[in-house]
Amino acid sequence: QVQLQESGPGLVKPSETLSLTCTVSGGSITTSGYYWSWNRQSPGKGLEWMGAIGSSGTTYYSPSLKSRTSISRDTSKNQFTLQLSSATPEDTAVYYCVRVPAINNQFDSWGQGTQVTVSS
Predict the structure, then answer these.
(1) Which of these, 13, 4, 10, lies nearest to 89 by C-alpha position?
(2) Exposed, middle or buried by CB within 10 Å (0-12, 13-18, 19+), for 62?
(3) Is 72 within 8 Å of 85 (Cβ atoms)?
Protein backbone atom coordinates (compact mmCIF):
# COMPACT_ATOMS: atom_id res chain seq x y z
CA GLN A 1 0.00 0.00 0.00
CA VAL A 2 1.49 3.32 -1.06
CA GLN A 3 1.91 6.01 1.59
CA LEU A 4 2.67 9.70 1.14
CA GLN A 5 4.04 12.10 3.73
CA GLU A 6 4.46 15.85 3.37
CA SER A 7 7.27 17.71 5.11
CA GLY A 8 8.53 21.26 5.23
CA PRO A 9 8.39 24.51 7.16
CA GLY A 10 5.09 25.39 8.76
CA LEU A 11 5.79 29.10 8.64
CA VAL A 12 6.99 31.09 5.64
CA LYS A 13 7.53 34.82 5.43
CA PRO A 14 5.86 36.88 2.71
CA SER A 15 7.88 37.11 -0.52
CA GLU A 16 9.86 33.97 0.36
CA THR A 17 9.62 30.62 -1.43
CA LEU A 18 7.41 27.96 0.09
CA SER A 19 9.03 24.54 -0.28
CA LEU A 20 7.48 21.20 0.58
CA THR A 21 8.60 17.62 0.02
CA CYS A 22 6.44 14.54 -0.36
CA THR A 23 8.10 11.26 0.55
CA VAL A 24 6.51 8.18 -0.99
CA SER A 25 6.77 4.67 0.41
CA GLY A 26 5.28 1.40 -0.73
CA GLY A 27 5.52 2.34 -4.39
CA SER A 28 7.81 4.10 -6.82
CA ILE A 29 7.14 7.55 -8.26
CA THR A 30 8.54 6.26 -11.56
CA THR A 31 5.91 3.55 -11.93
CA SER A 32 4.01 4.32 -15.11
CA GLY A 33 0.36 5.21 -15.01
CA TYR A 34 0.39 7.67 -12.13
CA TYR A 35 0.66 11.37 -11.54
CA TRP A 36 1.97 12.78 -8.27
CA SER A 37 0.16 15.95 -7.41
CA TRP A 38 0.21 18.88 -5.05
CA ASN A 39 -3.04 20.35 -3.78
CA ARG A 40 -4.04 22.82 -1.11
CA GLN A 41 -7.04 23.93 0.85
CA SER A 42 -7.31 27.39 2.33
CA PRO A 43 -9.70 28.24 5.15
CA GLY A 44 -13.24 28.46 3.82
CA LYS A 45 -12.25 27.36 0.33
CA GLY A 46 -12.36 24.17 -1.65
CA LEU A 47 -9.47 21.95 -2.60
CA GLU A 48 -7.21 23.55 -5.20
CA TRP A 49 -5.10 21.47 -7.59
CA MET A 50 -1.72 23.13 -7.99
CA GLY A 51 0.17 20.83 -10.29
CA ALA A 52 1.64 17.39 -10.79
CA ILE A 53 4.60 15.42 -12.03
CA GLY A 54 4.18 12.31 -14.08
CA SER A 55 6.04 9.03 -13.83
CA SER A 56 8.32 10.14 -16.67
CA GLY A 57 9.05 13.47 -15.01
CA THR A 58 6.74 15.60 -17.12
CA THR A 59 5.22 18.44 -15.12
CA TYR A 60 1.77 20.02 -15.25
CA TYR A 61 0.69 23.23 -13.56
CA SER A 62 -2.47 25.08 -12.73
CA PRO A 63 -2.64 28.10 -15.06
CA SER A 64 -3.38 30.40 -12.14
CA LEU A 65 -0.21 29.33 -10.28
CA LYS A 66 2.08 28.38 -13.13
CA SER A 67 4.22 31.51 -12.94
CA ARG A 68 5.11 30.82 -9.28
CA THR A 69 5.12 27.02 -9.10
CA SER A 70 7.80 24.43 -9.71
CA ILE A 71 7.48 20.69 -9.10
CA SER A 72 10.52 18.44 -9.24
CA ARG A 73 11.52 15.01 -8.04
CA ASP A 74 14.39 13.00 -6.60
CA THR A 75 13.94 9.45 -7.80
CA SER A 76 16.81 8.19 -5.63
CA LYS A 77 14.85 9.24 -2.55
CA ASN A 78 11.41 8.55 -4.03
CA GLN A 79 10.38 12.13 -3.28
CA PHE A 80 8.79 14.97 -5.17
CA THR A 81 8.93 18.60 -4.22
CA LEU A 82 6.79 21.72 -4.50
CA GLN A 83 8.23 25.19 -4.66
CA LEU A 84 5.92 28.20 -4.64
CA SER A 85 7.72 31.50 -5.03
CA SER A 86 6.76 34.97 -3.85
CA ALA A 87 4.50 33.63 -1.12
CA THR A 88 1.70 35.84 0.21
CA PRO A 89 -0.71 35.38 3.13
CA GLU A 90 -3.22 34.12 0.56
CA ASP A 91 -1.01 31.03 0.16
CA THR A 92 -1.76 30.03 3.75
CA ALA A 93 -3.36 26.60 3.50
CA VAL A 94 -3.13 22.93 4.27
CA TYR A 95 -1.01 21.37 1.53
CA TYR A 96 -1.55 17.79 0.39
CA CYS A 97 0.42 15.50 -1.87
CA VAL A 98 -1.79 12.99 -3.64
CA ARG A 99 -1.30 10.13 -6.07
CA VAL A 100 -3.56 10.17 -9.12
CA PRO A 101 -3.99 7.16 -11.42
CA ALA A 102 -3.90 8.31 -15.01
CA ILE A 103 -6.59 5.82 -15.94
CA ASN A 104 -9.32 7.68 -14.05
CA ASN A 105 -7.77 10.88 -12.65
CA GLN A 106 -9.27 10.10 -9.26
CA PHE A 107 -7.25 10.88 -6.15
CA ASP A 108 -6.48 7.50 -4.62
CA SER A 109 -3.73 7.98 -2.04
CA TRP A 110 -3.31 11.07 0.12
CA GLY A 111 -0.71 12.43 2.45
CA GLN A 112 -2.02 13.59 5.81
CA GLY A 113 -1.55 17.23 4.86
CA THR A 114 0.67 19.89 6.31
CA GLN A 115 -0.33 23.37 7.46
CA VAL A 116 1.69 26.21 5.97
CA THR A 117 1.18 29.74 7.22
CA VAL A 118 2.57 32.74 5.36
CA SER A 119 3.13 35.52 7.83
CA SER A 120 5.80 37.92 8.95
Answers:
(1) 13
(2) middle
(3) no
Give me the tens of pLDDT residue by residue for the chain, a chain 120 residues long: 999 999 999 999 999 999 999 999 999 999 999 999 999 999 889 999 999 999 999 999 999 999 999 999 999 999 999 999 999 999 999 999 999 999 988 999 999 999 999 999
Using alpha carbons, select from 68, 71, 40, 77 the residue that is nearest to residue 58.
71
DSSP characters over 47-116: EEEEEEEETTS-EEE-TTTTTTEEEEEETTTTEEEEEE-S--GGG-EEEEEEEEETTT----EE---EEE
For residue 58, give every residue at least 6 positions away whose Cβ sits within 8 Å of its Cβ, in sequence order, or none.
none
Is-contact 30 53, C-beta < 8 A? no
